Amino acid sequence: MKIPGINRFRGTVRRIKKRFAPNGLILMYHSVNNWRSDPWSLCVTPEYFAEQLEVLQKYCFPMPLHQLVQKCQDGKIPHHAVTITFDDGYADNLHNAKPLLERYGIPATVFITTGYIGRAREFWWDELEGLLLQPGTLPQTLCLTIRGNTHRWELDEAAYYSEDDYIRHLGLKPWEGKEGSRHFLYWALWQLLQPLRLDEQQEVLDEITAWAGTQPIARPTHRPLMDEELSMLHRCGLIEIGAHTITHPCLSEHPVAFQQYEIQRNKAQLEDLLGCPVSSFAYPYGDYTPETIGLVQEAGFACACTTVKETVWRHTDCFQLPRVQVEDWNGDEFGKRLLRWFHG
Fold first, then answer.
1. Is residue 281 classed exposed, middle or buried when 0-12, 13-18 and 19+ CB atoms within 10 A define those classes?
2. In DSSP terms, which residues pair with 321 in a beta bridge?
3. Could you tell me where the DSSP H helices lie in the chain?
4. DSSP letter at 225?
5. C-alpha to C-alpha distance for 57 and 52, rounded to whole angstroms
6. Which long-range contacts (CB under 8 A, 24 or more apart) does 14-21 make?
7. CA dihedral 341, 252, 226, 27 (to 10 degrees)
8. Would you say residue 84 has pLDDT above 60?
9. Is residue 177 predicted with pLDDT exceeding 90?
10. Span 257-289, pLDDT tens digits
11. CA-CA distances (angstroms) from residue 64 to 29, 38, 45, 157, 275?
């Protein structure tokens, strides 16, 4: 496959290799699919994912996460070392991402939120998007009581959301919505739901579902992995399974005992299911405290990934590994981003 501008990328790589100390890059993905509505830019199409992998195969040094961590500790990171990671555990990691990773021979780590595995519902942020940001008609007023506080929103004209409205707002970020819009409501609810426990989140989502007059259905494009699918992902040999808590909580919002249970039990569940040690962890939302780091170390993990947008350098803290999120870019744009990340 010919990727526009890739020769320019290759030439630039050759020049800058001589000028900079070696550093590595951990890439963060979530879904490889074809989502129309993607407010958090979590999805990369299979076509663009293939182009991105071709760029990595030709011009970088892809390696497993555990190998990059070891190279980091030894102070021997190869030039343009790259590790691919996926967060959460979408089913398309098996059905769409794995075949492409195998085609290009590139390893990856998939961080799994075990509480969603095998569930008939989507991840809470996707379920909320499906309720509020899809075309259709909703009641004009929403009133919810969350942790004793009453909240009220008016949708105004946005109660009716046409296909044209939907298409016009594709690409709009949640926080960019005007008051009274669907995106404004989505962002307000997302912020209220994020700190809650999963049972509280589901209770609020059930109320919103009843208000909307619909039923919670896991879309094939958004559903989490099933147990057997997770095992298949692990058995392919190219993909390492990592831990991502049980319920994907915002860890800093919860007591240490709750954090400890989420971290340790998540590791135990994965090891029971896969029959092998699980040594890597990723903080949900990139959120953690110094106490959280200690809990991850005590649980027996060898490393943990954040969402801090930086490269990995010699002796980077292996329990605060930075990552950069990859979006739905073609190979040319992805190559430009790589240059900026490595040598910005």
1. buried
2. 305
3. 6-17, 46-59, 65-74, 92, 98-104, 124-132, 163-169, 182-193, 198-212, 227-235, 256-274, 290-298, 331-343
4. P
5. 9
6. 16/339, 16/342, 16/343, 17/79, 17/80, 20/342, 20/343, 21/313, 21/314
7. 10
8. yes
9. yes
10. 999 999 999 999 999 999 999 999 999 999 999
11. 15, 28, 23, 50, 20
Whole-angstrom Cα distance, residue 306 to residue 321?
Answer: 6
Widest Cα–Cα separation across the chain: 62
Give the number of C-alpha atoms closer than 13 A to the C-alpha of residue 125, restricted to the C-beta side: 21
Which residues have C-beta within 8 Å of that of residue 292, sequence separation ≥ 6? 251, 252, 259, 263, 283
**C-alpha distances in Å from residue 114, one per residue of 84, 243, 245, 263:** 20, 8, 7, 11
Contact status, residue 233 vs residue 110, Cβ threshold 8 Å: yes
Structure tokens at 98: 């794995």
Q: Give the per-residue SS3 of 45-104.
A: CHHHHHHHHHHHHHHCEECCHHHHHHHHHHCCCCCCEEEEEEEECECHHHHHHHHHHHHH
**pTM to 2 decimal places:** 0.92
pLDDT tens across 115-171, in order?
999 998 999 999 999 999 999 999 999 999 999 999 999 998 999 999 999 999 999
User: Between helices 256-274 and 290-298, what is the axis angle to 10°?
Assistant: 30
Q: How is residue 38 annotated by DSSP?
A: -
| Beta-strand relationship, 81-88 and 61-62 | parallel
* Residue whose pair of structure tokens reads 């340790």 in the numeric block: 264
What are the residues facing 149 on neighbouring strands?
146
